[in-house]
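#struct-help
A.M.: can someone run this one for me? Single chain, 210 residues.
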Amino acid sequence: MVNKGFPKFGMSQAGAFVAALKNYNLPDFILVLIAKECKSDLLERGRIDDRLQSMNDEALELLHKVFVECAEDPAGKYAQYRFFAYVSSMYHKCEVMVNETIPGESGKNHKLPVAVKNNGMYIAVAFNKATGNEVSKKETARFYEMVDDIKKGDHGTMLTDAIYGSSVGFKGDALVELERLNKLRTDDPETKLNFKTANFENNIYSVTKC
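D.P.: on it. Structure tokens below:
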């Protein structure tokens, strides 16, 4: 239960974590995901500091590692949480879906780490490479083909943005290839897509190419 017994690392450290985290614009779905992972309670609504204080020590520690310390983990999960929050910050008052599967025109189901809905329609999809080598030309081409397939399908009629994020950087030819493919598209609203790449550097995501 909330604050049952004595916290593991004392109220002073928990309080310090809450004080630091409440200054971050943490989206609701991130709090829900972390609470679920750490088997923590979470106030459904209320002020951000009250909601944070309702979480257990493990959840507060994880949030602090991910968003304040910008720590890395071998599986790249921390980087994915940061990317989810970054995408969410670009689409205010929209619904952010995590690990969403969207069928394309080809009939193939495409699994994406993040998708954004507005009024029940997909408006953006995003993918992040959290570990490994820099993003290659082959990987950006594959991403383009996947998004193009979704756009042409029944669920892509309102899709306008596609974001490829990377915590490990991009090879030069990968950016050039995505830009080349993007330029082949027409400005027809029926088919128009904005492809963006975002790099995680100096503890922040920033768009490298549009």
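A.M.: thanks! Residues 137-152 form the longest helix (16 residues).
D.P.: also worth noting: The radius of gyration is 19 Å.
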